[in-house]
Specification:
alpha/beta; Aspartate Aminotransferase, domain 1; seven-stranded mixed β-sheet; binds pyridoxal-5'-phosphate
Length: 358
């Protein structure tokens, strides 16, 4: 690769690379471990079979039916015109950066946060500025306002609940970012469905805020990471702007029909969310028994720390058949809340490592 005439700003960059290892208990990419309901699987099969006959034609470029279903799922009075969908929220974010970022422009995020925000920024030629968090990985309205005023970014990324720390943001932090910038504010709510009761969504802030965008995904709570379907809600003008950069027919007919079939099963799919949240809370409750601590989580994962050496702990868990995520944060690891059995395997491995087994 080093011999190729690639863009100078990409020389030395590394691709996104969560290990895809063949391990019994994979708790490293925040997927929903629960199998999809069999009625959903057969509905998708029927929808795909029906659509297959029409694959000689391009898909609906506007994905209008799917966007209408997504708007209904989101509620908050959102219309089809305010919702946009693409192949994963990563593509949604890429489209936002293509239209609002790019060469000579910058995006501000608050590390540690979702690793794809800087990677997609770099891919679109957008400079990424690493903002700072307070103790305990918190963000405050005053801290965010000061950093937005200092860096004057064209886009501000706020991830709520934040990956990898897990905590959702109070709305006043989002409002502070919005009021301090003339640029776009993107709230990545990939884990919104897992938030603790009473946690408000940034969707409630959309009315009268034309530069605010909320992104969501079917990869996490919906358990459909393999489908590749993400979406945004914003002012209609944002959707119009994204059309300037989206590839024509970016969302295949098969993706559109499969996503629509899945949305008709939303209540059944979301039942697994409660089960996952219970396992998350179980992890949080059990960690202190092994001398470990955690960060408050509104997501389907827990950031845990307090071990002498995180890399050693990662390997020790892997040696016991449990794959967690080293997010590159010294002293911390991230574990996905999976099924009850997977969580038990993780906790048993911790007990074994701590010498408390049996
Ligand atoms: C997993 C994740 C996503 C999902 O991306 P998709 O492309 O929709 O699969 C988005 N944002 C955050 C913060 C995530 O952790």
């Amino acid at each position: 690769m080093t011999d190729l005439p690639i863009r100078p700003d990409l020389v030395g960059a590394s691709p996104y690379g969560a290990p895809q290892l063949d391990v019994a208990v994979r708790l490293n990419t925040n997927e929903n471990s629960h199998p999809l309901p069999s009625e959903l699987v057969s509905d998708i099969a029927v929808a795909v079979a029906t659509a297959a006959a029409g694959l000689n034609r391009y898909p609906d470029r506007e994905a209008a039916a799917l966007r209408s279903d997504l708007a209904r799922y989101l509620g908050h009075g959102l219309s089809t015109a305010q919702v946009w969908a693409a192949n994963g929220s990563n593509e949604v974010i890429q489209q936002l950066l293509q239209v609002f970022g790019g060469t000579g422009r910058s995006a501000l995020g608050f590390t540690p946060t979702y690793s794809m925000h800087p990677i997609i920024s770099s891919g679109t030629g957008t400079a990424f500025v690493d903002g700072r968090r307070e103790a305990g990985f918190a963000l405050t309205a005053a801290g965010v306002r000061a950093q937005v005023e200092q860096h004057r970014p064209d886009l501000v990324f706020l991830c709520s609940p934040n990956n990898p720390t897990g905590t959702a943001l109070p709305l006043d932090v989002i409002q502070a970012a919005y009021d301090a910038t003339a640029g776009m504010v993107i709230v990545d709510e990939a884990y919104a469905e897992f938030a603790r009761p009473g946690t408000p969504s940034a969707l409630t802030l959309l009315p009268s805020r034309p530069r605010l965008v909320v992104t969501r995904t079917m990869s996490k709570a919906f358990g459909m990471a393999g489908l590749r379907l993400g979406y945004l809600a914003a002012d209609q003008a944002v959707v119009d702007a994204v059309r300037l950069v989206r590839l024509p027919y970016h969302l295949s007919t098969l993706t559109q029909v499969a996503a629509r079939a899945a949305l008709t099963h939303a209540p059944a799919l979301l039942e697994t969310v409660a089960a996952v949240m219970a396992q998350r809370d179980r992890i949080v409750a059990e960690l202190p028994a092994y001398g470990l601590t955690s960060v408050p989580s509104d997501a389907n994962f827990v950031l845990f720390g307090g071990m002498p050496d995180a890399k050693e702990m990662w390997q020790a868990l892997l040696d016991r058949g449990v794959l967690v995520r080293d997010v590159g944060l010294p002293g911390w690891l991230r574990v996905t809340a999976g099924t009850e059995t997977e969580t038990s395997a993780f906790l048993a491995a911790l007990a074994d490592i701590a010498g408390l087994a049996g």
